[in-house]
Input
Amino acid sequence: MLADVLGRAAGWGALGSGPRDSDRVALTFDDGPSPRTPELLAILAQHDARATFFVTAPAGKAHPDLLHTLLDSPHQTEAHGRWHRHALLLTPGQEWRQIRWHPRAGAAGPLLYRPPYGGHSPLTRVLARLAGRQIVLWDVEGRDWTAADAATLARQTLARVRPGSVVLLHDGPEVTPELLRLLLGGLAARGLQAVTLNELPAQHIGLRQGWRRVRASYGG
Output
């Protein structure tokens, strides 16, 4: 549990938000690809926005054409794991395979990994380093996995967004496309542009920011 608190809640050493003096925000989508992916891509194109998609091996196998579409798009495609399981539910061998899998394996440049649920075991950071992966978290949740409507979620999310924020969304929920439309409209009204994590660019979470994340996670 301590590893999960330090790794997920504090996030020290992982990539988190970007520069706070920028006009950029990164929208990220976990769990895809899904039948919802084409709609999300169409909305992003309408707003001339880019995003980062963290895909899973089972979803890619179920929707290979959509995975290829993402890989060929102007968006950034990264790894969400071989399985969608919390790190504490994986054996060390399974977690090694989890972290090693990537839809762009062999590609040049750093490869990113977002652990399912942001979860960490005592081995997560060590294995990520050995595998040459950089762990990425977020600082704002869109909460599109809840039962709230799109307007409510958009209002709550935009209230927390700051320049440089990394927003967690999901590729799959029915509410997400409308939520995305509202978020992009709200960001534009504030002069903020949606870009990929590489374009943000995401920065490592330091000691002070990590303590702020812990306090926010536990209501402090």
